Every structure is written in C-alpha cells, then in structure tokens.
Amino acid sequence: MGEGQDLGLERITGAINRALSENSNEVTVLLENTAGTKNSMGSSFEDLKRILQRVDDRRRVGICFDTAHAYAARYDLHSPRGVDETLQRFGTVLGRDVMKVVHLNDSKVGLGSGRDLHEHIGMGYIGEKGFRALLKHEATRDLPFIMETPIDDRRDAVGDLLKVRELSA
Questions:
Q1: Interhelix angle 5-21/45-53, nearest 10 degrees
Q2: Could you give the CA distance from residue 46 to residue 37 in angstroms, rounded to a whole number?
Q3: What is the pLDDT of residues 43-60, one digit of tens each?
Q4: Alpha-carbon gap, residue 32 to 122, rounded angstroms
Q5: Are 75 and 44 in contact (CB under 8 A)?
Q6: 111-143 residue pLDDT tens
Q7: Residues 76-92: what's their mean pLDDT?
Q8: CATH of domain 5-168
Q9: What is the 3-state secondary structure (H, E, C) of the chain?
Q10: Over the stretch 6-16, which tens digit does the pLDDT of each residue have?
Q11: Under 8 Å CB-to-CB from 112, ≥6 apart: which residues?
Q12: Which one is predicted more confidently, 151 or 77?
C-alpha cells in the first residue's frame, strides 16, 4: 500500500501467475472489479485490462462484474442508457467473453462514491430501472448471478431473489 500502482500491478499479476503455474487443474480465477477505495486496483476496466495483459495463462482468468462496485467506481448503472454504455465499454476495453459471472447487488451510496456498501436489489442508487436493464441486457442475461445483498428486517435473500425474478420478467 502506498508504493504506487506499478508495484501493485506487479504484485497482483505475480500472485496470479504463480497460483496458475503451481496448479495444473482447469480452475478459472475470477478477478472482481473494485469500488475504487484507497490503495486498491481494479476499479476501472482499464486497470483490469492491465492486469489481464500480464497474466501468462489468460484462458484461466475471467472477470466477476460486481454491480455495486462498478457504480461506486463511476460506472452508471442507474438507467437503461447507463447500463448499455457501461457494458459496451466493458466489451470494448476487456472483451465481452471475459465476463463470467455477475455479483448482483444495489449500492447504498451514490455514483462515484468509491465506497463498497451493498444494498437490497432495487432499494439503492442503482434502483429497479437499472437492474431491469442489467438483467435483460444481452451482455449479462445468460450469465450466472450471485446476490451479495444484506439480510435485515427490510428483506432477506428470498425477497431479493423474488425481486430479481420480477425485474427480469
């Protein structure tokens, strides 16, 4: 921490390359985009591209796209237009085939906050309109989704799943 992105990039890619080279299995390592918190890498699609470009065995590495992290990192997922622009940009920078799974969660904080605070589906800043567009978008609709939402007195995991089904219909 605090020693610069070049050293961080070297450490990240060194660890990935070592893990892959020491394991001959067919496990795919998924890198998750970050929210842009201090001393982190991977909040921009360009950061993720820099990491992927240094991985020796690219066929064994993909991306887990976290919706709340993307929103916190200034990728607008609040509207159908924002979702389309974000996913088009992802495809342009990284290639569409590299996205393997979506961490589906709303954000308790606003666009570009740089903070990782998950919210129930449709109850945060991304909102129902954004999730409806995301769930139906050609870049994500056939991917697996993993919810990472809170469990509290407002809604549980079953409630979030029912909301996802409603918005994807």
A1: 50
A2: 16
A3: 999 999 999 999 999 999
A4: 22
A5: no
A6: 999 999 999 999 999 999 999 999 999 999 999
A7: 98
A8: 3.20.20.150
A9: CCCCHHHHHHHHHHHHHHHHHCCCCCCCEEEECCCCCCCCCCCCHHHHHHHHHCCCCHHHEEEEEEHHHHHHCCCCCCCHHHHHHHHHHHHHHHCHHHEEEEEECEECCCCCCCCCCEECCCCCCCHHHHHHHHHHCCCCCCCCEEECCCCCCCCCHHHHHHHHHHHHC
A10: 888 999 999 99
A11: 36, 72, 73, 74
A12: 77
Tokens 């109850």 locate to 123
* Mean pLDDT value across the chain: 95
Overall size of the chain counted in residues? 169
Instruction: Measure the CA–CA gap between 48 and 84, rounded to whole angstroms.
Output: 19
Place of tokens 């799974």: 101
pTM over 0.90: yes
AA identity, residue 167? L
